[in-house]
Amino acid sequence: MSGTVELVGVTKRFGSHLAVDAISFGIGSGEFFSLLGPSGCGKSTTLRMLSGFEAPDEGIIRIAGQDMADVPPYRRPTNIVFQRWALFPHMSVEANVAFGLEAEGRPRAEIRSRVGDALALVGLSGFAARKPGQLSGGQMQRVALARALVKRPKVLLLDEPLSALDLKLRHQMQIELKRIQQEIGTTFVFVTHDQGEALAMSDKVAVMNAGRVEQIASPQELYDAPATRFVAGFIGHANLLPVTVDGVANGLAMVRLGDLHFAAALRETSIGDMPSGEAILALRFERVRIGAGPAAEAAGAAGAGVARATGVVRQMIFGGASVQYVVGLDAAPVEITAEQPHGAGAPVFAQGTPVTLSWEPADGRLFKA
Amino acid sequence: MAASSRRDGGAAGRAKAERSAWVLLTPMCLLMAVAFILPVGLFLLYSFYRFRGGRLEETFTLETYWRFMTDELYLITIYDTLQLAVLATLLCLVISYPLAYAMWRMRSPGLQKLIAFIVFAPVLVSVVVRSYGWTVVLADQGPVNFILTRLGLTSGPVSLVYNMTGTVISLAHVFLPFVVFPILASMLRLDPTLREAAEDLGASWWKTFRSITLPLTLPGVVAGAQICFTLSLGSFVTPAILGGGRVLVLPIQIYTATSDINWPVAAVGGLCLLVMAFIAVVAFGRLSQYSEAV
Lengths: 369, 294
What we know:
The complex is a heterodimer.
Chain A: E1 5-14, E2 17-27, E3 32-36, H1 43-51, E4 58-63, E5 66-67, E6 78-81, H2 93-104, H3 108-121, H4 137-149, E7 155-159, H5 167-184, E8 187-192, H6 195-201, E9 204-209, E10 212-217, H7 219-224, H8 229-234, E11 238-249, E12 252-257, E13 260-265, H9 268-271, E14 277-284, E15 289-292, H10 295-299, E16 307-318, E17 322-329, E18 335-341, E19 354-359, E20 364-368
Parallel strand pairs in A: 3-8, 3-9, 6-7, 7-8
Antiparallel strand pairs in A: 1-2, 1-4, 4-5, 9-10, 11-12, 11-14, 12-13, 14-20, 15-19, 16-17, 16-19, 17-18
Helix pairs in contact in A: 2-3, 2-4, 3-4
Chain B: H1 2-46, E1 50-52, E2 55-57, H2 63-70, H3 72-105, H4 109-124, H5 127-138, H6 143-150, H7 164-189, H8 192-200, H9 205-233, H10 237-242, H11 250-259, H12 263-293
Antiparallel strand pairs in B: 1-2
Helix pairs in contact in B: 1-12, 2-3, 3-7, 3-9, 4-7, 7-9, 8-9, 9-12, 11-12
């Protein structure tokens, strides 16, 4: 990793509130890197420290190998796309995009050609003379992108730029952003609270919570191997079940949930130095299979180590492509949600139907309680 | 059925809302009719009367209008009135914009409130008291001249009072809040991320100010200037006291004419003021349209 951006022990306090707590990580050159977390987790503050609008209380920020401590925003090799885009309302699209180059004192001919290129890149070539007030949300978004990219920053910072768009447009812009990033190869640092957005676009995602980085990984790794209970609950949908670990055998933890006994795959990262006692089992909705009544129990008895639990459907939530069932277990006072793809002969279970849930030992992940 | 009855209800509701709007407007309409339209109509009538030998004659003549357009005394008066309004407005703007900017950027709300109070204070003081105060401060032996002489900036006292200078200073002083607060309001309305965006794009403070802050706060500047200009046109006590008879403005002339029962001159002078104020309002309106459109 060539490390375009490096943060070492970066801490930021607002009064007594610790917004960012000693975070350290590096972002590789040309990476699409997302900072993902719930609101107030410190992701926007981190972005503002990269841009220079906030100064860290402790720690070092290096961009392209240079310490940014005394570098004001207007001298940093970074540019921001703001959340509400912050286009200059009194200037045309062209003047908005040209602003940064004029500030640099570039020759007029160069400004003209670079502005033209930037507008072409975002697909707004015919809109140069319009005012921001005459544009749609998606178009304003593109102008903001062009205005930042025309400066050819080493790192482009994006502060939840898609959150003000409606769903369809947001999906369209996700694809568009990814295309542009691949085309120009600039490092993107993208702040979002939308995990779907982060997973869809990023090469790497840093999941933040309460000022700390919980995990930095590729989207697939985050999904398949969440490092912490927070990540397991935040990425995708997971049942977080309070279980007791009775012991370890053959790399499997023997787990108890009420009267239900089953095995869960043990990973060093997931349980650490605590192989027994109270724990949390994270079980993704879509990994839980659902079958009709006790009959399924007999039919599937062959699978070794497969966890099996009977229960009653308490709620059925139809989501189009998939159906979610909230099932109350017989063996323990807990509810487990199972998600099944809809259609292709999959049966639909009405509320009150007795069902059997099953999952593989490898589907659950154990975390400290 | 349900839809049509709802539509009827909507129409009835609208008519009702319109009626109550008229009820609310009635006091204002009555006031305007009695205190503005009626006097203006009477003035218009009087302006065509003849005044001869200290007596008013009800015969139609355009003589007074002709005198206002040709007699040097009246031309000087109109010129002085405009000069006073323009200078007071300019001085007000020059002081107000940096002041409003400082208040806007200030981090301490306490200090901001204190400055707002100081700016507003002159309005609380009677215009007569304030004007006499200024004559003392600006007098040849007053503190301002004392300091100027002591600092060696001038060899002797500068005449700051009983002329246009003192009048402009005093007017700018009292009209300051009418200019500062509209400008401050336009600054507070400005989205702070716009300035951050400009800074992020590499703009210096000056470039950000010139291309973002100033153009976007121009509507406040225009609104403030409009108020200051029209109020200055109609000022009477301040030029009467601080002008020392050397600042001939229309309101003073109108006052003198009415005490001589010279209604035609007073009427034409008044209409003159009205036309000037009207032109100013239209011109400033154009300017603010332009500044909002850019």
